[in-house]
Amino acid sequence: MTGLPCSRPGHARGLVGIAALAGLCLPGAVHAQSIDPQLVVTGSRTGDTVGLTSLGTAGIAGIADRQSDSLLDVLNDVPGVRAFSTGGPGGGSFLSVRGGQPNFTMVQLDGIRLNDPTNSAGESFDFTLLDPQLVQRIDVSRIADSAIYGSDALSGVVQIVPRDPASGALVTGAQAWVDTLAGSAASASATGGWGSGGAIVGLGHRDSGRGDPAGGLRRDQALTRFDQHIGDYRLSATVLYAHSLARDFPEDSGGPDLAIDRTLEQRRTTLVATALALRGNAEATIRPALSASWSHLDADIDTPAIAPGVLSGVPAEIAANRFTRLEIVADVAARLGVLTASAGAAVLREDGTSTGSIDYGVVLPVRFALTRVIHSGFAEASLRPLGGIAVNAALRHDQLAGGTGVWTGRGGVTWQPMPVGPTLFSHIANGYMLPSLYALGNPLVGDPALKPERSRAVEAGVEWQRDGNRLAFSAFDNRFHDLIDFDPTVFHLVNRDTVSARGIEAAATVALDHDWSLGGAVTRMWLDSTTPLTGRPNWNGNVHVAWDRHAWHARIAVRGNSAFDDSAIPTGAVVTPGHLAGDAELSWNATRRLDVGLAVLNMANGHWHDAVGTPALGRSVRLTLSVPWRTAS
After folding, report:
1. pLDDT value of residue 497
2. Which residues is 228 bridged to in the sheet?
3. Beta 105-109 vs 156-161: how paired, if at all?
4. How far apart, in whole angstroms, are the C-alpha atoms of residue 593 and residue 578?
5. Closest by alpha carbon to 373, among 394, 397, 346?
6. Residues 394, 371: contact at Cβ < 8 Å?
7. Inter-residue contact 96 to 171 (CB < 8 Å)
8. Using CA atoms, how far apart are residues 449 and 89, in angstroms rounded to an integer?
9. Domain edges within the chain
């Protein structure tokens, strides 16, 4: 759902009313790995790398070194991605991939879909639920991927990857940090294995304290992963429990600087998710796979009224959302010489209810309950003919029970003229997104006749990698059609908007010598929309330099963006100035059992806003103590 004036998804409410488990305990050990976005395969069922160059990944060290409060901090460094919290540590999540709306990106954890279709933000995901310390890697597909994943992958996919269990003896570790402004966090984990499998368990806790005037966050999380090899098959299971208590100023209220009503929104959220998968050996000629995932989300939200300003005020609202999702996927992949192909089927069931009220002076009940079932069939093929040319194609059909069907496709070609030379690539894809359950069922603004939102994406570029160095350049053209927006003349959500986003991206990683490395990324984007698109600057980028020597590691990073459109009720439409900000980090492997880290965040004590009226935290110092993974005594 596109949202309303200035295209902010959260406005819909107003109108109704990767340290990994490895990096977690090994910040010193992972410094030797690259801290830059790398390219891996996630948007494919064939397991082939053909035509998938658009994937950008934040790896173990990229997450561990940042000692991040949120995965949004890590995602914001990926070329083409703009990610931030809209209201302090407990605020909403803004994630835009190549100009798309936050709800245009599918978010998965180990194959479990996490997007919430019962919220007023059009099915976006709240990243405050996830602890960065329990994540090994994040894969970001920056092109429409409905041909692989179906609905929701309108502009891309974020795949959050937990760490595989270790083999051998039981090892344990822990990490804790404290910040002069941002509170504290702690986590612990244990992993061990046996001859044919292993398991890993991680626990995390976060308390942002009261140093941020925008609000706060308390979060507890547990993540377990199990692997077992059974003959030529691998059985894996993942279980996640996450609970958070978040408080922040309501979106568009003007935040701590401008909000007239100082009452904070309160959100209590609990997520339970599990996945089970049985897959054939990756080296086998024929590789069958069967997976099932289940998740349940409880979200209780108490949102205070927003006083009128330049724009009309918003009444208070209470909502209790309950959502359950079950997905089963079966497919078979085969390697036949230069051809690798896969085909399969899936069924997805979603059940959502929302019960609450909105206070217009007279309290009106707001309730809906919806179920939808989607049956899907898909196929994919990768071909490697002679001459360094590789081709990939995927096709999918999704049939909504009692509704219409949707076809989506994706194609890509790469050409590497010389084994050590650059690789040229191009891709084209289309995507779609079903209206959220909120958009279909809300009795005040919903419309059951809404059509799916659609996209078409094209990209082309060149990439070169050698001896730890990488250079990449790409150009993209995304078109979004039938976007859902609010029509005040009928007081309903309607399909009407069309948006285009064109841009170029460049990224580089250079090993200066054995101790020093330099990296960075930049994105330039041109947007075409009938209403201003909030939170999306024309320029966005980062540069960093790192130094590693023996037990010491240091890193300085500078990130920035140009001005961008934004909006809030006290101000109306505004242009928020751009900014530059820098962080510095130093870590020391003090002993075999202790790592010490020190970071200075927002070194220049800059004062900028990612959302109207919500200033960034000032300069802070963060101390981290880690007990590296070691054999349990």
Report:
1. 81
2. 197, 235
3. parallel
4. 43
5. 346
6. no
7. no
8. 37
9. 5-631
In whole angstroms, give the CA distance from residue 157 to residue 293: 17
Chain-centre distance for alpha carbon 217: 19
Residue 285 CB coordination number (10 Å):
10
> Distance between CA atoms of 248 and 299, rounded to whole angstroms?
15
CA distance 182 to 68: 11
Superfamily grouping for domain 5-631: TonB-dependent receptor, beta-barrel domain (2.40.170.20)
Residue type, 514: H
For residue 152, give every residue at least 6 positions away whose Cβ sits within 8 Å of its Cβ, in sequence order, or none.
105, 106, 113, 115, 123, 146, 433, 434
Residue numbers of the chain with a pLDDT score lower than 70 = 1-43, 47-62, 64-67, 629-633
Q: Write down the pLDDT at residue 367.
A: 96
Nearest 10 degrees: Cα torsion 401, 402, 404, 410: -10
Quote the pLDDT of residue 25.
34
* Alpha carbon of residue 43 to chain centroid: 14
Find out whether 86 and 611 touch, Cβ atoms under 8 Å: yes
Number of H helices, E strands in the chain: 6, 33
Beta strands per DSSP E along 142-179: 156-161, 171-179
The whole-number pLDDT of residue 420 equals 87
Residue 559's pLDDT is what?
96
As to burial, measured by CB atoms within 10 angstroms (0-12 exposed, 13-18 middle, 19+ buried), residue 24 is buried
196 within 8 A of 218, measured Cβ to Cβ: no
Residues 6 or more apart in contact with residue 467 via CB below 8 angstroms: 511
Q: Can you give the pLDDT at residue 532?
A: 87
The DSSP secondary-structure symbol of 438 reads H
Identity of residue 327: E
Q: Which two tokens stand for residue 526?
A: 């041109």
Q: What's the pLDDT at 102?
A: 86
Q: Which residues contact 283 (CB under 8 A, 6 or more apart)?
A: none
Task: Report the candidate in 536, 546, 539, 537 with the shortest Cα–Cα distance to residue 523.
Answer: 539
What pLDDT sits at residue 517? 94
Q: Between the CA atoms of 440, 446, 450 and 453, what dihedral angle is there, to the nearest 10 degrees? A: -80
